[in-house]
Structure formats: structure tokens, C-alpha cells
Design brief:
heterodimer, A: 369 residues, mainly alpha, ABC transporter involved in vitamin B12 uptake, BtuC, 74% helix, B: 512 residues, alpha/beta, Rossmann fold, 6-stranded mixed sheet, 18 helices, 25% strand, membrane (chain A)
């Protein structure tokens, strides 16, 4: 039994060192580049950390940045588990945020306890439907989801831009920039800590991580999705419906991204504007890759990326390092995680030693025989 | 000193010692067998000789001179040719293009006509006529093998390594191959014959070197060997029970009926043509034929993985021709698929996770959609014990187990469901004798319990030993159905090659 537990632990730890090595190497290289640019890398790191974790407010900002990353990363991971590469979280975020905004800017009289969930559900439903579109194209016409999800991103962004530019535009606004009306008070997400912007979206994100864990590690449906993702031929042999399973995953992925969109609008943005979320989905891909599609991994790497982006401004202020360096760090981290084989490089000498060891073992065995 | 010698050869890979202190000495003009179970190191040793690998230790000698082989090209120039189990031919090219492919003598402009003349003269001489101008994908497997042999001879091979050459042949084709081998040795060529089939070694080989776990056990003169039991004992290291004990049993009711089943694939090729047979309770029906003569499609149609174009599959009195896989599995059909790695298991999941694949929704395994891992783990530990799966524990990744142990847990998983019908395709392909015999005994035990078994195998011995009834397929058609008692290798071989049993003539023939 002890053997079983030990093996379980070993199984769990297998390959878990790589993300940490990747982060270390990425920081090291970035440090060298900062140095080469003529700045002080240690001061940069110090101001980055204090900007991200130095005060209650800094903590709040870091956690705020972490929330959308968790959702978009989960959106990528849920699809990935069943073998679909969802690069369309961005589009699903936009569509979800649009639907959520429509609910949140209207129905002013509703109590918050109804208004907020209604907006969240609308966002999830719209995001989910948008995710479904990509998988339906794949199932019906065999269109590769890698291509369609990226294309659907542009359509979603442009659609939101159009909606904001006229149909839902707030013509009474003081600014000339097109934007929607404000979210009504009853739909604003509750803050957790006074004097920070940190909101209950954090709890929803953590709940999503836990549900993700329960689904894929403890339920029959999650197991089916996982098998579908690992081998379509095995899942067919076991009588599973590959298309149906992948559709379920993509709808869930879209819903998670849509949820992300609404939460950001309700809690932070207060209104929808053109291009409001940038390429938010791709940050999620990076987080999911670094976190190895595991719930704990996603939580930790979302926190790291949140830190990087909330501390960047202070780093620019104190150490004068341009905050674009953050993208460099993120890029390097992902590069080293994806190209992890770089670390499994073995020297010739080590190999010879191994052979020598094997020879000895073989000879010993011979004596025993 | 012998013609070809390998002395104290060892080869260490990253994690395994594939060959340890192997000695092999072969005289000119003999047929020398390399016998060993899967993973005994036969292929590694021959790949060293052919220049694919380099030995970690040891020396090679040819004709008394020390031999250094850089790569396969170098080996060919030194007169060593190899016919691999999986042919190294390019199907889109013609025969003659394949023959001259990569030869050093090739000029900028190929003179294929001259090459074809030389090739034809050679093929005439050995009685293996092949048209040099047809594309390789038009050739049968047997012809492709002959082409591989001719290709090596064309390059003046003196030593020919044949890696499991009979695996893809009908008994009659094996006969032709043996004739060619005898002619070659008569000319002074040396043949190294890799096999795990003891009958063939007894028939064609002069000497036999037995490998076990990477080491040479012994080199024996084949004429000194009493029977195949003796060879088997040498190979495995302890006595093996080769004979199966099968009780005499009256079959029960019909539980699976295949009626005029026709299957046309996406390329509009009829892979099955009006196949008809049925299976009773407690009966093993062997499906025999050369690889890719419709066996795979037949099994897919029975298990719901494909849908027949015409005809019917009736399982336990229900028409399941158009039923889905899940429905058929739930009716009590267990399926051991042909391709273990791609269909039956997932290497990156633990044994525990692999074992719940089929029974996921059954009581005990899960409740209200949640998997009961505690119960599952306990159940699977018992299953591994019962089916002799050697593993540290059930959390081990399935990919880390040996092929035999992987197959044992797949078989265990399927039999644990107490099937009424067992569909087993190549259940012991690539396994060692111990595991093979174990799985065969398990299949016989299922028959005792009253399970109806469909067994697909290309090993005639296995089919003849286990089956009550034998269905022979050729090109998607039933050539005849034999009782076990009336089946002989010769009869089955002729039918596998396309000869019909009385009563199974083509309708057009019957009218004449």
C-alpha cells in the first residue's frame, strides 16, 4: 500500500519540474537583456515584485489580472482535454461580454441578486454558442478548428466594434469614443476588499478551477472527454461519441470565455468599448501551457502572469525598464515550456556512465544466474 | 574459422541491454536460424550486422577478416542483404525502379532497360518471375517479398537476412520461399532466418542459434533436435505446455448470426462479399486467412465500428446491423481489437484509468456520474492479480508495461465483463510463448463457460488448435467452413489462396 502511495506521488511529480525551470531560464535571459539595454535587472525585479505584491492594493491588482487569465486558460484547457485546440477564447470573450452588457445596461429595476446572475448566464450562453459554432463547422464540414477559431475572433471583435459604434452606442457620452452605456448599479460585481478593485469574480474563478478538477478527475463524463482527447480510435472502440464529446467541450470552453468577458465588464470596465479586451485569449493559452492544463498549474501560472502585468508599471517607473519586457518574459516562458526537450539534453559522458553502470548490473546478474 | 562470426557482441540502449555477449558463427552455404521470443534480441543483432546499429562491444568477422560496417549501404557493398519484416519498397514506383533505387552505379540518366534485362534473367533463374514494369502496389504481399529478395540478390548479396519471412505468407507461398532458399544455398549463398516458428526452423534450417533475454543460449544442429518441444524449452528456458486441453462439448443455441454480409469501403472496394456463418454458445469459430482479406472489416461490422452495406448481423436474436458500438457492447459482446496500441489502450493513462474504459457506467465503478476511485482501484488490483499482469501497481502508466502485460490487462478487462460473445482479433500477436499460451487458455476457459468466441488469427496452428469451426476468408469471401477435425494445414492453405470448398463455388461457376 505504501508502494502505491509512493508511486502515486512520483506519478504526480513526473514532469512537474519543467515549468519551474522554464520560468527560471526565462527570467535569467530577460535579466541579461535588461542588463544589455543598460538597466539594472535587480532593481527591475525588485520594483516588479513590490509593484505586484507590495501593498494591499498591489495584491488586489494582481488578483484582478489573474481572474480573466484563469477563465481563458480554462477555456483552452477544457477544449484541449478532448483534443480540440481552441484559439478562439478571444472571440468568445467578446461575444460573451456583448451579451452580458446588453443585460447589464438594461433592466435597471432588477435586484442585484437576479441581475448579476442573469448577466453572467447570458454571457456564458453567448460565449458557449460561439464556441459551438467553431466545433459545428468542424463536425459538419471538417473545417480545422485551429483556423476557424482564429477567424471567428476577428468576426467577433469587428461585430462588437460595429455594435458599439451605433446600435448600442451611448450618444449621451462626454467622450467622442464610441462606447456603450454604463452598467447599471444593480449589475456591478461586489467588491471583496475595501479600497481595492478586487471583486467576487475571484471566487467564481476559483470555483471554476475546482469544478474543472472535479469534472476531469472524478466524473465519468470528464473521463470520457479525456479519453476522446487522448485517442479517438480508443474512444470509438469503447462506444463513445467523439463528435458529441468534442462539442460538449467546446461549448464549455466558450462558456468559460464568455463568463470571463461579462465579469470583466461588470466589475472593471463598466461599459463595453471597441477592442476593449485586446488579444485576451492568447494570454490564456500561455497560462494553460505553463500550467500543464492542471487546475493547480493554471492557478499558479495565472498568478505569475497577473503579477507580471500588475507590477510592470512600477518597474517602468522605478527602474525605467519598458514594460514591454514583460511580454518578453511571457514569451520566453512559453517557449521553454513548449520546447521542454531542450532540458532533456544529455551529455555523451553521462551516457557512457550509464552504459558502464548497466554493464556492471548485467555482469552481476550473470554471476547470480 | 567460420565464414561469418559475431564475437562477444553487446548492444546497450538507453534503458535496456538488448544484446549481451552474443556469439554467432555461421558457415558458408548454410541456413542458420535465429530463434527467440519477442524482445530476445534477434532483430537488434541482425541490425548490427546490417549496419543499422553499432555494437557497444564485440567484433564481427567475415571470411576471417575483421568487419566494420558503417551503415546499411556499406553492408550491401560487403554482400550482406536484409529482407525486413515490413518491406522497404516504394509502392508508387515500378518494380525495376525499386530495384535500382539508391545504387551507387546509377548514372545521371537511368538505363532501366538494361537493368530490367538483368533483373528478368535473375528472376527467371530463381523461378520468381515478376514483371519489372508494373508498380509495386499492384503486387501481392508474397510477390513483394520475392522482389525484396531479388533486390538483395541484384546487389550481389552473399549473406541474406530474412526477418520473420513467413509471417505474411500462405502455407503454399511458404513452400515456394523454401524452394528458393534451398536453391540459394546450393549456390553457396548463406541465409540467416529469423523466426519464432519452430516448425519452419525444423524444416528449412541446418543450424539454430537460440537467443534468450539478449544472450546466446546455445547453437544446435537442427537434425539433432528431437521435436519442437525441445526447441521451445531452449527458447523459453523452462518446459512449456504447448498442448491445449480442450473438452468435447456440444454447442448450444445460436448467439451470433452473420448473414450475407457485404461491406464496401470508401474506395468502393468490396472488402466483404456475402459472408455467412453463425456461432453457438460455447463454440470457438476461427476466422483464418492471409492478412487483409476482410478479417478486419468483418470484425468491425460485427462490433458496430463499421456498418455493413448489405446483409445482417444478428446478436442474441436482435438485428444489430445498424446498431452502435455502445449498444453492442452493452448486449454482452467483448472485443479484443487487432491494434492494441491504437484501439485498446492509452499509453499516457495509468493502468487504473485504462481498466475502467468499458465498464465506466456499471455499478461499483461510478455512482451518479462520479467515479468511485477507491472501489475501482481495489477491483483493478484484484484484476491485475488474477490476470497475472506484472506491474508495481495500478497507478503505473500503461505505456511502461511490456507488450505481454499490456495485452493481459486488455484481455482481463474484456473478460471481466463476463461476455456472452467474445470477439478476439490477433489476441496474442507479438507476445511470447508464455503469454500466448496464457491467453489461449483463457479463451478456452470462456468457451467452457458457454461464451461464443470469434477468433481471428493468421497463425494456422492457433486456429486449428483452438477452433471448433474454421471459416476461411479470401479476398472478402468465404472459401469454406471446416470442422476442426477435417482441417489440415494443406487444406486451409489452399483455401486461403483462393480455392473453394465444394458448396462454396461462385454462383457463376455453379451455373456452368
Amino acid at each position: 500500500m505504501e508502494q502505491t502511495n509512493k508511486n502515486k506521488v512520483m506519478q504526480f511529480l513526473r514532469g512537474k519540474q519543467y515549468p519551474f525551470i522554464a520560468i527560471g531560464v526565462a527570467l535569467l535571459i530577460s535579466g541579461c537583456i535588461i542588463k544589455a539595454m543598460g538597466f539594472d535587472p535587480f532593481l527591475a525585479l525588485k520594483s516588479l515584485l513590490s509593484g505586484a505584491l507590495g501593498t494591499t492594493n498591489a495584491w488586489g491588482e494582481t488578483l484582478i489580472k489573474m481572474i480573466p487569465l484563469i477563465f481563458t486558460a480554462l477555456s483552452f484547457s477544457v477544449a484541449m482535454k478532448s483534443g480540440i485546440v481552441n484559439l478562439g477564447a478571444t472571440g468568445q470573450v467578446y461575444i460573451g461580454s456583448l451579451a452580458g452588457t446588453l443585460i447589464a445596461t438594461n433592466f435597471a429595476g432588477l435586484p442585484a441578486i437576479i441581475h448579476i446572475p442573469l448577466a453572467l448566464i447570458a454571457g456564458m450562453a453567448a460565449g458557449g454558442a460561439y464556441g459551438w459554432l467553431a466545433i459545428a463547422l468542424k463536425n459538419k464540414f471538417g473545417a480545422n478548428e485551429l483556423v476557424t477559431t482564429i477567424m471567428l475572433n476577428y468576426i467577433a471583435i469587428q461585430f462588437v466594434n460595429y455594435m458599439v459604434s451605433d446600435p448600442i452606442r451611448d450618444y449621451g457620452a462626454t467622450t467622442a469614443l464610441p462606447q456603450s452605456r454604463m452598467v447599471t448599479d444593480t449589475a456591478v460585481l461586489t467588491k471583496i476588499i475595501p479600497n481595492t478593485r478586487l471583486h467576487i469574480g475571484l471566487f467564481i474563478a476559483i470555483a471554476a478551477l475546482i469544478l474543472y478538477y472535479i469534472l476531469f478527475w472524478h466524473t465519468t463524463k470528464g473521463y470520457e472527454l479525456k479519453v476522446t482527447g487522448l485517442s479517438q480510435s480508443v474512444s470509438k472502440y469503447a462506444g463513445m461519441n467523439v463528435k458529441k464529446n468534442q462539442t460538449i467541450s467546446m461549448v464549455m470552453a466558450g462558456a468559460l470565455a464568455g463568463m470571463c468577458g461579462v465579469i470583466e465588464i461588470l466589475a472593471i470596465q463598466s461599459r463595453i468599448t471597441q477592442d476593449w479586451a485586446g488579444d485576451i485569449g492568447f494570454d490564456g493559452v500561455a497560462v494553460a501551457l505553463l500550467g500543464g492544463n492542471t487546475p493547480v498549474g493554471i492557478g499558479l501560472s495565472a498568478f505569475l502572469f497577473g503579477m507580471l502585468s500588475s507590477g510592470a508599471n512600477k518597474m517602468q517607473m522605478m527602474a525605467k525598464v519598458p514594460n514591454a519586457v514583460i511580454y518578453l518574459v511571457q514569451g520566453l516562458v512559453v517557449l521553454f515550456v513548449v520546447g521542454r526537450n531542450i532540458f532533456i539534453w544529455k551529455s555523451k559522458k553521462k551516457n557512457e556512465k550509464k552504459i558502464e553502470k548497466m554493464k556492471q548490473a548485467v555482469h552481476k546478474e550473470q554471476v547470480e544466474v | 574459422m567460420a565464414y561469418l562470426e559475431m564475437k562477444h557482441v553487446s548492444k546497450y540502449f538507453d534503458r535496456v541491454a538488448a544484446n549481451v555477449d552474443v556469439n554467432l558463427s555461421i558457415e558458408k552455404g548454410e541456413v542458420h536460424a535465429l530463434l527467440g521470443e519477442n524482445g530476445a534480441g534477434k532483430s537488434t543483432l541482425m541490425n548490427i550486422l546490417y549496419g543499422v546499429y553499432h555494437q557497444s562491444e564485440g567484433e564481427l568477422f567475415l571470411d576471417g577478416e575483421k568487419l566494420h560496417i558503417k551503415d546499411p549501404k556499406d553492408a550491401i557493398e560487403k554482400g550482406i542483404g536484409m529482407v525486413h519484416q515490413h518491406f522497404m519498397l516504394i509502392p508508387e514506383l515500378t518494380v525495376i525502379e525499386n530495384v535500382v533505387l539508391g545504387m551507387r552505379e546509377n548514372k545521371a540518366i537511368l538505363d532501366l532497360k538494361a537493368a530490367a534485362q538483368k533483373f528478368e534473367a535473375m528472376s527467371e533463374k530463381y523461378g520468381m518471375h515478376i514483371n519489372p514494369w508494373v508498380k509495386v502496389d499492384m503486387l501481392t504481399v508474397g510477390h513483394q517479398q520475392r522482389l525484396e529478395i531479388l533486390k538483395a540478390l541484384y546487389r550481389n548479396a552473399n549473406i541474406l537476412i530474412l526477418d520473420e519471412p513467413t509471417a505474411v505468407l500462405t502455407p503454399q507461398e511458404v513452400g515456394v520461399l523454401f524452394k528458393v532458399i534451398r536453391q540459394l544455398t546450393a549456390e553457396g549463398k548463406t541465409i540467416i532466418f529469423i523466426s519464432h516458428k519452430m516448425n519452419e526452423i525444423m524444416e528449412i534450417c541446418d543450424y539454430c542459434t537460440v537467443l534468450r533475454r539478449g544472450r546466446t543460449v546455445q547453437t544446435v544442429k537442427v537434425s539433432d533436435i528431437k521435436d519442437k518441444q525441445e526447441l521451445a524449452t531452449l527458447m523459453v528456458g523452462h518446459a512449456v505446455e504447448l498442448n491445449m486441453h480442450k473438452s468435447i462439448k456440444e454447442p448450444g443455441n445460436v448467439i451470433l448470426k452473420v448473414d450475407k454480409l457485404t461491406y464496401t469501403n470508401k474506395l468502393k472496394v468490396d472488402k466483404l462479399k456475402e459472408v455467412t456463418f453463425d456461432i453457438h454458445e460455447g463454440e470457438i469459430v476461427g476466422i483464418c486467412g492471409v492478412d487483409d482479406n476482410g478479417q478486419s472489416e468483418l470484425i468491425k461490422c460485427i462490433t458496430g465500428n463499421e456498418t455493413a452495406t448489405k446483409g445482417h448481423v444478428t446478436i442474441l436474436d436482435e438485428d444489430c446491423t445498424h446498431a452502435g458500438v455502445r449498444h453492442i457492447l452493452d448486449k454482452g459482446v467483448s472485443h479484443i481489437p487487432e491494434d492494441r496500441h491504437n484501439m485498446a489502450m492509452i499509453k499516457n493513462l495509468s493502468i487504473n484509468e485504462n481498466l475502467i474504459l468499458m465498464a465506466l457506467k456499471k455499478d461499483g465503478y461510478s455512482k451518479h456520474g462520479f467515479i468511485d476511485w477507491k472501489w475501482v482501484t481495489k477491483h483493478n488490483q484484484e484484476l491485475c492479480r488474477e490476470y497475472e499482469v506484472k506491474t508495481p501497481d495500478v497507478n503505473e502508466l500503461a505505456g511502461n508495461l511490456s507488450g505481454g502485460n499490456q495485452q493481459k490487462f486488455v484481455v482481463g478487462r474484456e473478460l471481466d465483463r463476463n461476455p456472452k460473445i467474445l470477439v478476439a482479433m490477433h489476441p496474442d500477436r507479438g507476445l511470447d510463448i508464455g503469454a500466448t499460451k496464457y491467453i489461449q487458455r483463457r479463451i478456452l476457459a470462456e468457451r467452457e463457460k458457454g461464451t461464443g468466441v470469434v477468433l481471428v488469427s493468421t497463425e494456422l496452428d492457433e486456429i486449428m488448435e483452438l477452433s471448433d469451426k474454421i471459416v476461411v476468408l479470401n479476398n472478402g469471401e468465404v472459401m469454406g467452413i471446416l470442422d476442426q477435425k477435417e482441417a489440415t494445414v494443406e487444406k486451409l492453405g489452399l483455401m486461403m489462396a483462393g480455392e473453394r470448398m465444394p458448396g462454396y463455388e461462385k454462383e457463376s461457376d455453379a451455373l456452368d
